[in-house]
Here is the input.
Amino acid sequence: VSRGCCSGRLSEEDMLAVLLVARAAALSSPAVRREGLVGSSHRVTLDFGRERNTWMPPRWAATTRAVFSARFSWQANGVVRVDETRPVRGLALGSGVTWDVDPLGTWTIDDLTLRVSLTHSGFAVGDCEMEPGALDLALPVFFTPDIILSSKEGLMSIIAYRFFVRRERRLVGVWHAESMGLSGD
Here is the structure.
C-alpha cells in the first residue's frame, strides 16, 4: 500500500489524524469554548494569602490567610454573575469581615485557561489586606465534549506598580471551583 502524497488516497491512520486535528480545531474555537460554560454555576473558594514567588511586600499576609466562598454563574457574552460571597474559615470568618464584589465580572477562555476578572471593595483580615480594585483569576480547563474546569488550584493576581512606574502582576492567592450544575438547578 502506497502512503505517499501521489497515491491519491489517505490511509485509515492518516484519515483519523485529519479528523482528530479538525475536531481539536473545532473545539478550540472561541464560540465553542464559551458555550460550554454558559448556563452553568460553580461554587468557588478564594484563598487570599502569601504565595511563593509573589512580589507583594514582605509583610503582606505573612501570618494570616483570608478565605471566601462565592457562587459564579457563567452567562453569555463573557459575563459572570457573582453572588453569595461570604467568609468560610479562619480569621475572616471569626471576625465577620465582609468582602463586596461587583455582581458582574467578565470571563474568557484563551488557550487552555479560564480567565476571570472581578472588581471588589477590598478587605483587611490581620496582615492580609486587599486594596479595592481589580482581581484576576486564572484556572486551567480541559476540552472533552464538555468543558471541564481543573480540580487543581488556579492563581489569583492583581496589577500593582513598583516605584510608581513599573507595572507588575502580583500573586495574592489561589482559588478552585466545584461544579453546581446548570444555573437553574
About this structure: Residues 115 and 138 are 5 Å apart (CA to CA). Residues 29-33 have pLDDT under 50 and may be disordered.
